[in-house]
Each structure stands twice: as C-alpha cells, then as structure tokens.
Prior knowledge:
By secondary structure, the protein is an alpha/beta fold. The chain has two domains: 2-129, Rossmann fold, CATH 3.40.50; 133-199, Translation Initiation Factor IF3.
Amino acid sequence: VIMVHGDDNGLRVPPRLAPIQAHVMVVKSGDGVVEAARKLHDGLRDSGVRVAFDDRVATPFGRRAVDAELKGYPVRIEVGPQDLAAGNVVLARRFDGSKTPVTLDAAAGAVRDALDADQQALYDAALRFREEHTVEVESLVEAQDAAAAGWARVPWPLVGAAGEAELNANGITVRCLVRPDGSAPDSEDEPDLVAYVARSY
C-alpha cells in the first residue's frame, strides 16, 4: 500500500482500507465550533464512516493537519469559527490535496462522495501505472530487461526453478503466478501459468 499509493507527503490510504476514513478537526475554539464538529463526527459515525475527532486546540492546527496527512487519512473536515459563521466547513482530501468549502448541512454527503471518488481514483491510478510499466516477454533475457524499469509477464514454463535462480542472480524475483484470466492458481504445476517478475528490493 505504501509503495503503490504513498507520495512525497506520506501515506495515501485507499478509503476502503483506511482504519480512519474521515478526521473531523476543530481548527480553533469559538462559539458553537466544538459542538458543530462533534455533531458532524457523530453523524458520520452513525452512517458507517470510520471517523476520528480532534478538538486538541492547544496543539497548533498546522501540526495536527500535517500529522493527519502523514497518516494518510483520506478526508479531513476542518471546522473553524470563521467558516462556521458562514455556515461552512472545509473538506480537505488527501488524494489530491484539494480543500473545498462545503455547507455544514451537506458535509456528511460530501465526505461520502469524496471517499467513493478517491477510492476509485487511487485504484485507477495504480492500475494505469501497472499497465504502463508491465511488458509481455518471451524469454528470460527480455524479462531481465523489462524488469529494469517495471514488471515483466513471462510464461511460467520458460522460468521454472532454473530460470528463477538465474533471475535471482540478477536481482529479479518472481512476484506472483497467475492463470491466463488473472486468478491465483492452486499450484505452480497448473498449465499456462504466467509469472510476474520484477526487481527485488
């Protein structure tokens, strides 16, 4: 998950996997701010969103926001007195770093929509990256060349134990075996298996 979805700012955890999907944060104290944030938190929790609540206003907001970003929380909802006075909260999305004001009444729905959209976007980005960096090959030499910049798909009968040892000697390992339809085999002895190979780290 870290290697596939992380970026220079830390983790980006797919919402369906995230232990905490949304993080409701009180920016600073103000009239009704904590109460509004708590109500939003409770509504999200009751609708099935895994949500955390942060009203530690004694800790600088910037520090708390950076911590949430590093931990990969998919969505952060910032509740502060200035935005709340206008009937808004700020929706911050970890996937693309965007921050959008939304009305307090629409916040719960906006959170759920963002979680769904970002789950799909992370999946699409990972799939696109994999497809762009995977090469179909027909020999161990081609597999070694392709693995220098990504992954190689090579027929498993061309690899076998001897071929695997040769790949290993060049810092390349078999990552998985799949059937032609992409499903996992019950045994490496099944016919027509394909090996994914790549550099080892």
